[in-house]
Design brief:
about 200 residues, alpha+beta, Ubiquitin-like (UB roll), Translation Initiation Factor IF3, two-stranded antiparallel ribbon, about 20% strand, elongated, Translation_initiation_fac_3_C, initiation factor, cytoplasm
Length: about 200
């Protein structure tokens, strides 16, 4: 038998164990029924179940579900389009999601699989800071597939995003004030300013 604080009580007859549990106002719980003799523990079973449920709920919440996003490319993709798609892939990986990259071949492009392979290798190299190749490029009919996994887990990515957001709020700079224009100085009037311009002097 194990005591309420984890201390070893030793081998105790069942009647004595039940009496000890009653005296301590605790439950006698069998924790290892396969052991010979079986192992029991004195504990507050209701409290134990509640704490276990709380811990499980917390783990589930922190775990976060990793999604698999998909990005489709063509072997002869334009440079601007490539940069845009790469930006999306980086965003997904930063968010802790996997990304399945699909290269779609059409017509005679199917006879040039090296185009797709080179493109996937280039993309993997470009985003290696945020993700790693989880599934290497492989041909699947008309398509070539590769899966990138995030270097950060979903929960870590959320925590980092939350931290950077709160950090950014603290140090948010106020917009700089525009310098105020100096007021125009009034020209002093001399005796000539009050005269009629049509009068000959």
């Amino acid at each position: 038998m194990v005591g309420p604080n984890g201390e070893q009580v030793g081998i105790v007859p069942i009647e004595d164990a039940l009496r000890l549990a009653r005296d301590a106002n605790l439950d006698l719980v069998e924790v290892a029924p396969q052991a010979r003799p079986p192992v029991t523990k004195l504990m507050d079973y209701g409290k134990f179940k509640y704490e276990s449920a709380q811990k499980e709920r917390s783990n589930r919440r922190n775990q976060g579900n990793t999604e698999t996003k998909e990005m489709k490319l063509r072997p002869k993709i334009d440079e601007h389009d490539y940069e845009t798609k790469k930006g999306h892939v980086v965003r997904f990986l930063k968010g802790g999601d996997k990304v399945k990259i699909t290269i779609m071949f059409r017509g005679r492009e199917q006879s040039r699989p090296e185009l797709g392979f080179n493109l996937l290798k280039r993309l993997a190299d470009d985003v290696e800071e945020f993700g790693f190749v989880e599934s290497h490029p492989k041909q699947d009919g008309r398509n070539m597939l590769m899966v990138l996994g995030p270097t950060k887990k979903k929960a870590e990515a959320r925590a980092a995003a939350k931290a950077s957001k709160s950090h950014g709020d603290e140090h948010e700079e106020l917009p700089a004030r525009k310098p105020q224009a100096e007021p125009k100085k009034k020209k002093k009037k001399g005796p000539a300013d009050n005269m009629d311009p049509d009068i000959d002097l």
